[in-house]
């Protein structure tokens, strides 16, 4: 379900179930978690095979869940998203075609979301009497603001690439999202990893500033300027 290749500092993670628009089963989520855990490259690039990024959770799995199973499935998805978010290098989501539900939530956990002009994104769970429970209710408002997040989630409406760019849901629209991952792989690896750690730090401001100074000093001590 998840293919992994590494090339020139970029570990490419491909969701590879194109006949099901890369919908995610428990096994697929565990495969993705293991692939991220095993990666050592400074940049991860997550994308989907075929014509979709990811359709979200496989509805055949969701239909069979009882309350305990639903909580466990949500916990698994949350853990995988957190694994992407806390990877010590940069993580780029290349969104080509449809991203729905859990697919949007995985993209939200990435550091940079890059869409093609044909990309569409939607949190469609509300139309099924559900909502995304892989961390999206926290990450979406943090990224686009509370008002836009409520509009997206409560309506379940589909955003095109231009809408997503305007809201800040994606940071770039380009024909070749993989090129953004290559761009990041070309910068200084130590600085990239240090910046990721500092900008993902959720400690109090004073603690962040102490850590920022220490990280900067470490880079200076080892820099070849």
Automatic annotation (TrEMBL):
UniProt superkingdom: Archaea
GO molecular function: catalytic activity
InterPro entries the record matches: ClpP/crotonase-like_dom_sf, Enoyl-CoA_hyd/isom_CS, Enoyl-CoA_hydra/iso
Lineage of producing organism: Archaea, Methanobacteriati, Methanobacteriota, Stenosarchaea group, Halobacteria
Pfam assignment, any one: ECH_1
Family under the similarity heading: Belongs to the enoyl-CoA hydratase/isomerase family.
PROSITE patterns: ENOYL_COA_HYDRATASE
PANTHER family linked: ENOYL-COA HYDRATASE, IP11341P-RELATED
Protein name, entry field: Enoyl-CoA hydratase/isomerase family protein
CDD domains in the cross-refs: crotonase-like
């Amino acid at each position: 379900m998840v293919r992994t290749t590494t090339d020139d500092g970029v570990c490419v993670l491909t969701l590879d179930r194109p006949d099901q628009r890369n919908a995610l089963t428990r096994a697929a989520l565990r495969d993705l978690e293991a692939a991220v855990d095993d990666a050592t490259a400074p940049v991860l690039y997550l994308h989907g095979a075929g014509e979709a990024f990811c359709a979200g959770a496989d509805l055949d799995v969701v239909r069979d869940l009882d309350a305990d199973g639903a909580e466990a499935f949500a916990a698994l998805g949350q853990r995988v998203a957190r694994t992407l978010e806390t990877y010590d290098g940069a993580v780029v989501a290349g969104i080509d075609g449809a991203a729905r539900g859990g697919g949007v939530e995985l993209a939200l956990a990435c550091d940079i979301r890059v869409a093609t002009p044909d990309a569409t994104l939607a949190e469609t769970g509300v139309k099924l009497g559900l909502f995304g429970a892989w961390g999206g209710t926290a990450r979406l408002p943090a990224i686009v603001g509370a008002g836009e997040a409520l509009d997206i989630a409560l309506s379940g409406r589909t955003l095109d690439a231009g809408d997503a760019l305007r809201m800040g849901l994606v940071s770039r629209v380009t024909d070749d999202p993989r090129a953004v991952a290559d761009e990041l792989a070309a910068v200084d690896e130590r600085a990239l990893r240090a910046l990721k750690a500092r900008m993902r730090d959720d400690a109090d401001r004073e603690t962040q500033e102490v850590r920022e100074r220490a990280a900067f000093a470490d880079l200076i001590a080892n820099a070849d300027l």
